[in-house]
Design brief:
Length: 138
């Protein structure tokens, strides 16, 4: 009985955390994505894929997310994603993580950025590969 109650509490906490993260992400991304849509020729489906953090299948969707990240200052002068502690303020703004979550997420993000950086010079592909890495490792 107590075990079931603990499990239910854990599910409620996880659901609450994901809900906060999703709303924080949408609040941060929506205005920037709206600015980027005409620049990259993204469709409503592309916008929804970015907004819902789905796997990005089309070039316009990938470029839409790259544009958002560029507007947030996530790329260095040489076109690579910022890494280490430099990317974390952007990730915190996007996901609104609480302190205890940040440690776990920070390591995941750092690992993915390090893994993907330098493999592709195209920012649209770079951001899509990074997102794919993060989704796969969650």
């Amino acid at each position: 009985m107590i075990r079931n109650l603990c499990f239910i509490c854990l599910i409620a906490v996880v659901h609450s955390v994901l809900g906060e993260s999703t709303q924080s992400y949408k609040d941060a991304v929506t205005p920037l994505a709206n600015e980027c849509i005409p620049q990259v020729g993204a469709s409503d489906d592309d916008f929804q894929a970015v907004l819902n953090r789905n796997r990005l299948e089309t070039r316009p969707a990938k470029c839409l997310l790259a544009c958002v990240f560029e507007k947030m200052g996530a790329f260095s002068a040489d076109g690579r994603l910022l890494n280490g502690d430099n990317i974390m303020p952007i990730i915190d703004r996007l996901y609104g993580f609480k302190e205890y979550q940040s440690v776990l997420r920070a390591q995941l993000v750092r690992n993915c950025v390090d893994q993907v950086n330098g493999k592709d010079t195209d920012q649209c592909e770079l951001i899509a590969q990074t997102l794919h890495c993060i989704i796969e490792q969650q």
